[in-house]
Amino acid sequence: MPLTRPAALVALLLVVPVLLASLARPAAAAAADAVAADAAPASGSAIHEVLDRSARQRLAEFERHRVAPELSASLQADVDRIMGQLAVRPDLQLLVVDGPFHAEMLAGHVLVVSASVAVLPEGERLFILAHEIGHAAMGHWGELCELYGRLIPGEVRQDLTDAVAPQLGREASVLVHGHEYAADAHAWQILRSLGHGMDSVLAALQVVPNMGDTPTHPSTRKRYARLRLVGENEPRSAAIRPASP
Ligand SMILES: [Zn+2]
């Protein structure tokens, strides 16, 4: 995937945490447009400033679609159940929004979910939420920012970013595919501990059926196959890291 401008680099990052990219695409694409307008004149900024600014802008956009507290209560209860299963709980806020299906861990700590997730069967809801919480628990946003910072160490300038764009595209894709598998394994471990089976995983992954490989996500088929390998009883999944000393 050719990436030729800072805005395109940021746009790739924007869609990274989205669990089911095609349904979520309208929101992600709109946000990417908004960021593109901002990121283009970002010369002089360090990449982490560009990333922070784009995350803040996207958050402000999502905030405009926040639903009433009573509509987010059931999803908050699901999140609390999942957090109750974790030995180490990441700091996170839940933001439930109106609009098309969406599930994303924004900037590593804001769980943005559309209210429509609340009407899914329990096992599917829990898988989707536990997957996103897995991204936060395992520090995936930080790893991605580290990659950006390593390849764009100075100011964000088009000539510099053009030079590293192909490498960044390749490395980011490999990194985030690994994040997806790890978040799936995390969600599967949580789901089992809450009494749900692989049928819920399959149903959750098929909320968007027949999704092929994208720069940010392995295909649904590969994700499901990987989880089948983890199996019903495998305790050593990539899901939950031991607490740091
Ligand atoms: Zn994900």
Task: Walk me through this protein's architecture.
Strand 2 and strand 3 form a beta hairpin. A three-stranded mixed beta sheet has the order 1-3-2, with helices on both faces. The protein has one domain. The radius of gyration is 18 Å and the shape is globular. Helix 2 crosses helix 3. The chain contains nine helices and three strands. With 245 residues, it is mostly helical. It binds zinc ion (ZN). The site of zinc ion has 6 residues, from helix 5 and helix 7.
Features of the shown structure:
245 residues; mainly alpha; 3 strands; 6% strand; disordered N terminus; binds zinc ion
Provide a compact summary of the structure.
This protein is 59% helix and 6% strand.
Describe the largest sheet.
3 strands, mixed
Portion of residues in helices?
55-70%
Class based on secondary structure composition and strand pairing:
mainly alpha
- Write down the domain tally: 1
Strand order of the largest sheet: 1-3-2
Number of helices: 9
Strand content: 5-15%
What's the total number of strands? 3
- Give the distinct bound molecules: zinc ion
- Spell out the helices and strands N to C: HHHHEEEHHHHH
Mean pLDDT: 82
Gyration radius (Cα, Å) is 18 Å
Tertiary shape: globular
Distance between the termini: 39 Å
Which blocks of ≥5 consecutive residues have pLDDT under 50?
A: 1-6, 14-42, 235-245
